[in-house]
Design goal:
single chain; mainly alpha; elongated; 12 helices
């Protein structure tokens, strides 16, 4: 009996000592940021497609392109270059779709804010004003707000539904709007209509200015694409000649083609980086 009491006393002393070295307060879980590829798919409106499916499409397109070109030309080096270019095409298409959708959404966000402002002035609550955007909002945002309405009806929690809406839209302007509405919902206030009016004017002016700048620098992007595509178009024309195929179907020819491909990719990315406007980042994810 004395041994049991001694063990219990020792365990109690150990637990008291251990409590001074552990932090009993729970640590808030940090939200994991989505990967860059997943965020690109969300910006392109393809959130239902996972990154693995896109990688698989790139691999399948690359293999198919390489086999077709190698079979048509009879040169493995041509097939290798075609496989690399073909594998890049699905990713390039998704990025192009994401940029186009971002530019389109930039034009419709002022209208979304105007619809919210009108609904709130008409006496609707904030959740009701957001839900009605699935019917009266601009066409590009209606599916996202329809899913928001379904999330809100299922859970009854506005904050959780707003978080899902932000992840679904994957747009920095949407992040700003959602966070402004979230703060207004939490702390209250009577100036929501004035806030939305100011935000609408700012978004409209920003979209107008950015559109003018993008129109002026579009020649740089077109020049970059032409400069990269021209050598490979010439190479395809040369591939119709058996002598050119024999010249490149060797170790030295493979080095030349792969080196040219690397230089083309680096030059294209550099020209786009120098001529592109800075993209707004999602700092309020």
């Amino acid at each position: 009996m004395s041994a049991v009491l001694g063990v219990l006393l020792g365990a109690g002393v150990f637990l008291v000592w251990w409590s001074f070295w552990t932090d009993g307060s729970p640590r808030p879980a940090r939200a994991r940021r989505p990967g860059r590829l997943r965020e690109t798919l969300a910006r392109a409106g393809l959130s239902q497609i996972g990154p693995g499916a896109l990688v698989g499409a790139c691999c399948a397109t690359g293999v198919l392109s390489g086999l077709l070109v190698a079979a048509a030309s009879g040169a493995a080096t041509f097939g290798l270059c075609a496989a690399l270019l073909g594998g890049w095409l699905p990713l390039a298409a998704v990025r192009h779709r994401a940029r186009s959708r971002t530019a389109l959404m930039r034009e419709v966000w002022p209208d979304v804010v105007d619809h919210l402002r009108s609904a709130i002035r008409a006496g609707l609550s904030l959740p009701e004003a957001l839900v009605q955007l699935q019917y009266r909002g601009p066409e590009p945002v209606r599916p996202a707000f329809a899913q928001f309405a379904a999330d809100y009806r299922a859970s009854g929690q506005l904050q959780a539904a707003l978080t899902l809406l932000k992840d679904r839209l994957a747009d920095p302007v949407a992040d700003n709007i959602v966070e402004a509405l979230r703060v207004t919902r939490e702390v209250g206030g009577t100036d929501l209509g004035r806030l939305l009016g100011t935000l609408s004017e700012f978004l409209r002016e920003n979209a107008r200015t950015r559109g003018e700048l993008e129109a002026r620098q579009s020649w740089t992007v077109n020049a970059a694409r032409l400069a990269v595509a021209a050598p490979w178009i010439v190479l395809l024309l040369m591939a119709t000649q058996p002598a050119a195929i024999r010249a490149y179907d060797s170790a030295a020819g493979a080095v030349v083609l792969l080196g040219g491909l690397l230089v083309s990719v680096v030059a294209y990315r550099l020209m786009l980086r120098l001529g592109a406007l800075p993209e707004p980042e999602r700092v309020l994810q």
